[in-house]
Design brief:
The chain has six helices and 19 strands. By secondary structure, the protein is of the alpha+beta class.
Length: 355
């Protein structure tokens, strides 16, 4: 069963919802998720990127049949994320480690997802491996208004440019309310956590600047920051910099809630790195989505979860308990991903039953 965190840290909020449920009010429920799908590449060699390993003649001997199976497995997982109540897949899903628009298009038109009516928001990033972030959404439930790419510019000690993933920023209408979704895939820990940390600190700073702008324009903005941060919820990039208040002269108050921090402290995880379990995949929410104050109405956070049924977990061997990944020992192994998906459920009082 998926690991789920009911809102134990927000007792007042939970009691508020229980009271409303006892009065037989009805809700619309929306699932917002994030999934690092582990190298969703096609088999075509793109001369502009370093993707040769994911070709039939490359290191991974990645065939067309492997690609089709990878699409099927990934789509099957997506269709079930947060499905305990809706059984209709996530309304909005951030993606990481996708190669291009074409693989996302194959994904959403697969047999497992085609009926759910997904659309795509994607831009090519300058990442040297050719992997990007993207957003898919159910067209019947979410209306995008604006999209923006924030380029993450990094340099190494010698002054050479480091090319990494962009940050994707999407605003749109969900449940008759405007929400802001920021999709991330922060720089990896290659070279070690300490040596690579400045890259994530710089990326966190850029997300911080973006949220400053959002809240200066709309102090009650409902913001979701989601992605693979390559840091845990208690690491400096997230705890100290991402949540840092803006300057007093801007008169911007930013309060965020990270449900994955509680999970991490309880020992839950979404992936493994260097023989340690981590919770790099997170969804962070702004105050208006969690507050019980009457000034914040409408769309509201209900609960968060890690989607990790047993078939996504390696059941034996040295890596027992780790995600059942797609690639092992330079071969496509038929698994799913080296990350578990994460999700949150948002509810809004409505005239119809939960979809």
């Amino acid at each position: 069963m998926p690991s789920v965190f009911n809102v134990t840290l927000l007792i007042a909020v939970l009691l508020f919802y229980q009271t409303m449920e006892s009065q037989s009010k009805k809700y619309s429920l929306y699932v917002v998720g994030f999934y690092n799908v582990e190298n969703l590449f096609d088999t075509i060699d793109d001369p502009q990127t370093i993707d040769e390993d994911f070709t039939p003649t490359g290191k991974n001997h990645y065939s067309l049949d492997d690609y089709k199976n990878k699409i099927k497995n990934t789509a099957s997982v997506i269709s079930k994320i947060g499905g305990t109540k809706t059984k209709k897949g996530p309304t909005i899903l951030g993606l990481a480690e996708i190669e291009n628009f074409n693989v996302i298009n194959d994904l959403i038109h697969s047999a497992e997802l085609n009926k759910l009516g997904y659309q795509i928001i994607h831009f090519d990033s300058p990442d040297r491996r050719g992997i990007d972030v993207a957003l898919i959404y159910q067209e019947a439930l979410f209306l995008p208004l604006e999209t923006e790419i924030i380029e993450v510019k990094l340099w190494n000690e010698e002054g050479a440019r480091i090319y990494t993933r962009d940050i994707l920023y999407v605003t749109g209408i969900l449940g008759d309310e405007q929400i802001h979704v920021i999709v991330n895939h922060w720089p990896s820990r290659r070279g070690g956590k300490i040596r690579s940390e400045p890259k994530r600190m710089k990326t966190a700073y850029m997300v911080n600047q973006l949220t400053n702008r959002i809240f200066s324009e709309s102090p009650k903005a409902k913001v979701l920051i989601l992605g693979d941060f390559n840091d845990d919820p208690t690491d400096h990039s997230i705890k100290k910099l991402l949540f840092q208040p803006s300057s007093a002269e801007n008169n911007v108050i930013k309060l965020f809630f990270n449900p994955m921090e509680f999970m991490f402290k309880k020992g839950w995880n979404t992936m493994a790195y260097r023989d340690a379990l981590h919770l790099f995949d997170q969804i962070i929410l702004s105050k208006p989505l969690i507050s019980k104050d009457q000034e914040y109405q409408g769309l509201r956070y209900y609960r968060a979860g890690i989607f990790n049924p047993s078939y996504l977990i390696k059941q034996d061997g040295k890596y027992k308990g780790y995600p059942l990944r797609s690639f092992e020992n330079n071969r496509y192994s038929g698994g799913f991903s080296d990350h578990f998906p994460v999700f949150i459920e948002l509810i809004m009082p409505f005239s119809d039953q939960i979809p």
